[in-house]
Write a sequence for this structure.
């Protein structure tokens, strides 16, 4: 069995977060969805658990960082092309996200990201396989 990853993120308003990520094309597993949480399917082995803040707090004694002032993680996903990078971020912005950083173009690697409605940072990057083999 392949290793799976479940990223757990606190959210202020679950319905609002589901609507946001639905606009980006993600779907959710109804088996793991209730008023406290949902399981967003990123790929066959990557899932994001969106947990209402009070429910999230039941898993840790630590405070939830204020995402307006602090960053705890950057969730980075690969893309198949530069165009896919831009399309994903543009969809997020159209759904209400912001772009805290400029696009990064290093020739062999191209990336960009957004801050979601709860302040979580997301990035996507495309790495040119031909340029990688030349370096």
């Amino acid at each position: 069995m392949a290793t799976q990853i479940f990223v757990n993120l606190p959210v202020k308003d679950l319905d609002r977060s589901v609507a946001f990520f639905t606009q980006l094309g993600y779907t959710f597993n109804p088996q793991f969805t209730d008023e406290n949480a949902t399981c967003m399917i990123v790929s066959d082995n990557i899932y994001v658990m969106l947990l209402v803040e009070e429910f999230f707090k039941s898993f840790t004694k630590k405070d939830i960082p204020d995402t307006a002032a602090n960053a705890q993680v950057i969730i980075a996903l690969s893309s198949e092309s530069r165009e896919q990078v831009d399309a994903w971020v543009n969809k997020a912005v159209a759904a209400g996200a912001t772009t805290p950083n400029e696009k990064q173009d290093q020739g062999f690697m191209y990336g960009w990201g957004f801050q979601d409605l709860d302040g979580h940072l997301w990035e996507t990057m495309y790495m040119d396989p031909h340029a990688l083999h030349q370096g």
